[in-house]
Amino acid sequence: MRTGRTAMTMLGIICVAAGVCGAADLSEKKLIAVGWDMPNAERLRANYELMDQLPFRGSSLRFTGRGNTPFLDFAHGRDEWKPEDIAQIIEDLAAAKPERLTHNFLDIKATPGDVDWFDDEGWAIIVDHWRTAARVAKEGGIAGILFDPESYRNAQFGYKDQSQADQHTFDEYRAMARKRGGEVMAAVTEEHPDITILSLFMLSIFGPQIDQPTPALATSRYGLYPAFIDGWLDTVGERVTLVDGCESAYHYNSDVEHLAAANLIRNRCQRLISPENRYRYRAQVQVGFGIYLDAYANPPESSWYIDPGDQTPVERLEANLISALNAADEYVWLYGEQASWWPSPHARADAVRWGEKLPGVEEMFWSVIEPTLYAARLIEETGDAENLLQNAHFDAAEGEAAPGAEAADWQTEGAPSGWSFWQSAAAGSEGNPGWDGAVGHDAPGSATMTAVRSGCLIGSAEVTPGRRYAVSVWQRQTGEGHSSVRVRWKTEENKWHAEHEDRFLTAHGTDGDWQQMIGVVSAPEGTKWLVILLSMDGQQTEEDVAWWDDVKVFEVR
Question: What is the pTM (predicted TM-score) of this model?
Answer without folding.
Answer: 0.83
